[in-house]
Amino acid sequence: MLGGNVPSDAGNFGFEARPSAASLIQSLRDFGYSLETALADIVDNSISADATRVEIFAKFDGLDSAIGILDDGHGMGAEQLQLAMRLASTGPSEGRQPDDLGRFGMGMKTASFSQCRRMTVLTRQSEVTSTACWDLDEVSRRDEWYVSRPPATEVPWSDRVGETGTLVIWQNLDRILSGTDEGNDSRTFARRISEAASHLEMVFHRFLEREGSHRTIRIAVNNRELVAFDPFARKYAATIIGPMEKIWTKAGVVTIQPFTLPHHSNVGQDAWERLGGRDGFIKNQGFYLYRARRLIVWGTWFGIAKQTERTKLTRVLLDIPSSLDESWKINVLKASAEPPDYVRRRLKTLIEAIVATSKRIYTHRGVRQAALAEIPTWQRVRTRGGIRYQINSEHPLIQSVLADLPADRRTQLLTVLNVFSRTLPMDSLLHDLSDAPDQVNAASISVEELSEITRSTVASLLQRGLSWVRITSMLKSSPPFDANWDETAKIVDQMMMEEA
User: Does residue 254 sit in helix, strand or coil?
Assistant: First the structure.
């Protein structure tokens, strides 16, 4: 046998494969947290500690910048703090209170490590103050799971801690300040903090406002009170709220309720933009999954349906208790989930009825206009290959021009119109309509242009032998006359007087 005799381990009963602290703690920094999700994870702990107020301080001072998260919860004793600083301090299978937003006992540590290299906790309970600090540089130097206990006086913002509560401090913000000009870009820092605040306003919106008998919590970022942002726009009368359904299981109840957001004409521009979010309405449609009232996943159909333009106004609230964590496969970040098969089957049967309302809201205006327009400029043509739009060559304006042209020139004009119809920029239109539908409008028309178009159209219709009553009715239902009807009516009246 090549290599000679191989030593046998038959007499051994195993060995300890303890991981290197220096190596593993660096790996724990890359779980996938962003600044906003990391802050949300710390706020989870505050809510679980029965806090009524959370204050977030973000101080920019170049490489000495720091972030603090302070709550007025019940705090921890020295032994509790020591346990809380351990990785995986609580297992995912351990029983939790209904309002406990924890999952793996990893959140405070991994969320903090993802953003900084030094995380300090100062907590107060029964007039006793305790501190503990993870310093990743120290862990790497020692290659040990070493936690220090700094004096409370050395902890920033320690004077703000009340009779009870917990303060988490992030220093050496290498991940947050990376990409800035050697840590000196205060504007980038401020922007990221502002984006994180908006994130918290949505993730915790059900805690920030009164909901039934549940307690509310106040959250402030640099002394700015956060305001609940409801992704379902329930305060607008035009929002359609669907029926609530509950799926009962041994481990807990799944609540389902669909919402159809109002058309952009029924809300202000600022509200519309905020409802759409940074990614727009198409990417933010779908299920909004809440775990113990805390939003964890949104903007997904879980593979049950496709995100389309016509269903972009649909948002469905899914509410689950923490007792369903395992069956929903809630991950460490509390940012991904997968509905179990029995829920997926029910959602699949409901989905068509859920999105139907959104389709009607979003398309009814265009369909109604197309149906009523008696002099359409564009025609909607359905073929085996799909739906296309083409310029209406029967429009009176086009017909009047064709009548004055010789045969070869008529053919040439119709060819040009056909080219225009086939080169309609559909991709650009769809992108603009999905991104900012309230900004997509027909070009304005001057009084002189409207007068010329009206006179030419009326003259062509008169040549066909139509009455003034009929012509007026046709103009009133067709663009651009319908949108400028007061001025159009004056022009028609003037033409009638001229003819008389």
Answer: strand
User: What b/e sequence results for 317-344 when a residue is b if at least 16 CB atoms lie within 10 Å of its CB, and e otherwise?
Assistant: bbbbbbbbbebbebbbbbbebebbeebe
Question: What's the pLDDT score for residue 285?
Answer: 94
297 vs 331: CA distance, rounded Å: 11
Collapsing DSSP states into helix, strand and coil, what is residue 251?
Answer: coil
User: Is 370 or 151 the better-scoring residue by pLDDT?
Assistant: 151
**For residue 28, which phi and psi values (nearest 5 degrees)?**
-65, -15
pLDDT for residue 461 is more than 60: yes
Q: From start to end of 333-417, where are the E strands?
A: 378-383, 386-391
- CA–CA distance, 93 with 38 (Å, rounded to integer): 23
The span from the CA of 152 to the CA of 158, in Å, is 7
> DSSP secondary structure string, 44-109?
HHHHHTT-SEEEEEEE-BTBT-EEEEEE-S----HHHHHHHTSTT-S-TTS---TT---SSS-HHH
| Cα(417)–Cα(389) distance, integer angstroms | 12
- Residues 164-216 have pLDDT tens digits of 999 999 999 998 887 555 545 888 999 999 999 999 999 999 999 999 888 89
Report the share of the chain in percent with pLDDT over 70.
Answer: 86
The reported pLDDT for the residue numbered 8 is 57
The β-bridge partners of 297 are 289
Bridge partners of 128? 125
Q: In this predicted model, what pLDDT tens digit does every residue of 352-369 receive, in sequence order? A: 888 777 666 655 544 444
Q: Which has more confidence, 358 or 75?
A: 75
Contact 140, 113 (CB under 8 A): no
Q: How far is CA 53 from CA 72, 194, 197, in A?
A: 6, 19, 15
User: Between the CA of residue 190 and those of 23, 186, 229, 402, what are the distances in Å?
Assistant: 32, 6, 20, 62
* 35-48 vs 186-203: helix crossing angle, rounded to 10: 50
